[in-house]
Write a structure and sequence with these properties.
132 residues, five-stranded antiparallel sheet, 5 strands, serine/threonine-protein kinase, HATPase_dom, HATPase_C_sf, protein serine/threonine kinase activity
Length: 132
């Protein structure tokens, strides 16, 4: 059963990904896949700040760090990033030559063992988990 280790709420501003990375690094300081989890979380927050309604004045992004065991007993850790929703769905973009952006979810998909998204009450959550 997953257990929330820690939660933080950030303003939907360009500084949020950096603050998220620091938060995850503190919450999971001794975790063997800390670097992967911190990068995953900061990419998810960057997407929220760029693509969701959280970027609007007063917008917020919530980050939860979780640890637990799956149904098969395999240990995992993960992050859940909840934003104010948007009119689009999270999508891994195909590689675009010379593009300076658009690789966030591709990184998440490459680093995470599982990831996904869901919406509830106009809020969107994107989550990712890694085996430990």
């Amino acid at each position: 059963m997953p257990v929330t280790v820690s939660t933080c709420v950030l303003d939907g501003t360009p500084s949020a990904p950096h603050a998220c990375r620091a938060f995850v690094s503190t919450a999971l300081a001794a975790h063997p896949r800390l670097d992967d989890l911190a990068l995953i979380a900061s990419e998810l927050v960057a997407n929220s700040v760029r693509h969701s309604f959280s970027r609007l004045p007063g917008g917020r992004v919530s980050v939860r760090v979780i640890e637990g065991a799956g149904c098969d007993g395999t240990a995992f850790a993960g992050v859940k990033v909840t934003d104010d929703g948007s009119s689009t769905r999270p999508l891994v973009r195909r590689r675009v030559e010379l593009s300076e952006s658009g690789y966030g979810l591709a990184l998440v998909a490459a680093l995470a063992d599982r990831w996904g998204h869901y919406s509830v009450d106009n809020k969107r959550t994107v989550w990712a988990a890694v085996r430990t």
